[in-house]
TrEMBL record:
InterPro entries: P-loop_NTPase, ParA/MinD_ATPase, YlxH/NBP35. Keywords: ATP-binding, Nucleotide-binding. PANTHER family: SEPTUM SITE-DETERMINING PROTEIN MIND HOMOLOG, CHLOROPLASTIC-RELATED, SLR0110 PROTEIN. Coiled coil: none annotated. The lineage of its organism: Bacteria, Bacillati, Bacillota, Bacilli, Bacillales. This is P-loop NTPase.
């Protein structure tokens, strides 16, 4: 080989292809049935309304239902990505994504739970990197709790949306999950979201902050008919029920995410002394 040919040409090209552009958001919860899928799909569609490239990865590899929530019939799932892993690059991965009418691109979960084991840590790592290279946001709907693969996704994410509600058992487990995040040094990137915050319960939405020791919470109201109808017909409520309170809450969250990101991208490189004293950056 001539000496002027760079020896590391291929890895360099490869790393350019994987150069990170997007922000990864992992949507998680300590218990199932709390609203991770509902939030993941509606948030993704709300973000995409702003001319932003959004990808969703269904990270509930056993029982993923992102496709169902978006009324998609996937021709490919992450199982096909695994089978083509040897030749995978950003362009190949794009071919496995399912296009939703909103513009959101979805990497579906395997269609049977027994295939979940095929999705190894290496697959998750590569797929997230390639999706982040091609999208401004990668929203990941994770499996329940802190099982191994969900934890990998949480560790890899830039921000973690941890959903809870006003039920005693959910709050108790959310607190345990938050404590574990603290032990793992992941707590700083967690934003707790109280879903169904207007539901009837002995615990009031206003108590959650004290119980969990979380200063800033995001609240999403309880709107059973809108949300369950949306899931049943596979049309995210932000698309056709934009005036409902639940949709407004999701749009507000999307706007906060966008403006925080704009501030992060455009902030001056060297803040003045006054700025650094008085301007403490805050997540959401
Ligand atoms: N804000 C909400 N208001 C009313 N019902 C909701 C809300 N969010 C979720 N739900 C309901 O909760 C159930 C579980 O939601 P889902 O997103 O499938 O949970 P997960 O993905 O955490 O298992 C669904 O039946 C859905 O209709
Ligand atoms: Mg789900």
């Amino acid at each position: 080989m001539p000496s002027d040919v760079p020896q590391n040409d291929v890895p360099e090209k490869e790393s350019k292809l994987k150069e990170k552009r997007g922000e990864m958001i992992a949507v998680c919860s300590a218990k199932g049935g709390i609203g991770r899928t509902v939030l993941a799909v509606n948030l993704a569609v709300a973000l995409s309304k702003n001319n932003i490239q959004v990808g969703i990865m269904d990270g509930d590899f056993q029982f993923g239902d992102v496709s169902l929530a978006l009324d998609l019939h996937p021709t490919f799932t992450i199982k096909d990505v695994v089978e083509g892993l040897d030749t995978l690059d950003a362009f190949a991965l794009a071919g496995y994504l399912i296009h939703h009418s909103s513009g959101v691109k979805v990497l579906a979960a395997p269609d049977r739970p027994e295939y979940a084991d095929l999705v190894t840590h290496e697959v998750i790592h590569q797929v997230c990197d390639y999706m982040l290279a091609q999208h401004d946001y990668l929203i990941v709907d994770t499996g329940v709790g802190l099982q191994e693969k969900s934890l990998q996704l949480i560790e890899k994410a830039d921000q973690v949306f941890m959903l809870t509600n006003l039920e005693m058992a959910t709050i108790k487990n959310t607190k345990l999950m938050l404590e574990t995040m603290e032990l793992l040094g992941l707590k700083d990137k967690v934003q707790v979201i109280v879903n169904r915050s207007t539901m009837e319960s002995v615990i009031q939405a206003s108590d959650v902050s004290d119980i969990l020791g979380e200063e800033t919470l995001v609240y999403i109201p309880n709107q059973i008919s809108t949300v369950s109808q949306s899931l049943n017909i596979g049309i995210p409520f932000v698309m056709n029920q934009g005036k409902t309170d639940v949709a407004k809450a999701v749009f507000k969250l999307a706007e906060q995410m966008i403006s925080r990101r704009e501030i992060a991208v455009f902030k001056p490189k060297a803040p003045s002394l006054l700025q650094s004293i008085f301007h403490k950056p805050k997540m959401i």
